[in-house]
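Dear all,

This email documents one entry for the complex benchmark we are building for the journal club exercise. For each entry we list the sequence lines for every component of the assembly. Then comes the predicted three-dimensional structure of the complex as a token string, followed by one or two observations. Please use this as the template for your own entries, and keep the labels exactly as they appear.
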Amino acid sequence: GAVVSQHPSWVICKSGTSVKIECRSLDFQATTMFWYRQFPKQSLMLMATSNEGSKATYEQGVEKDKFLINHASLTLSTLTVTSAHPEDSSFYICSARKRGENSNQPQHFGDGTRLSIL
Amino acid sequence: EDQVTQSPEALRLQEGESSSLNCSYTVSGLRGLFWYRQDPGKGPEFLFTLYSAGEEKEKERLKATLTKKESFLHITAPKPEDSATYLCAVLASGGSYIPTFGRGTSLIVHP
């Protein structure tokens, strides 16, 4: 178990549009979800942490008004990139922590979303 | 500040040629070290967790070891399907309970 699904897997859109990425835990309840961004040959950079039913906690340097995160249920978190620009093009990956698991245990990752802004 | 450094950045091996990947870390206290495999265009796939120096974990051709300063991922007789990027992540004590990732080692195994 512990499957995390991301949708879409790939999206291309025009500069100025908003894009929503979904992250779902398919077979477990996720008390915490994490959103990462990964540039080519770079490490995963944590953008924000979201707990179900509460506001997301953003890492330093991440604009919360640009990257809107909603974690409305124990199985779904969404990341909306508002007014996207070419510099927002990246690989966005979500991960989830299963209810009952502590921080010493590995996160469960989705397969990522490739975002390309033209 | 917690730091995780992986080396080499890239590694090319012939099929059957064993080698090791390194993950050096600087943290105030180690709660756990994770190894992941990441295929192109995919999310990380969990391999191992190590919690204390001297601990070893093994899975098929992979073996992970841990000391107080670094971890090694040993690959024995690799096959082309082992080609991937291997990521190391360190969870520090007294911190945010979120692991810090290294940049990864890109491994290519030639047939």
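Observations: The first strand of chain A starts at residue 4 and ends at 7. Chain A has a mean pLDDT of 93.
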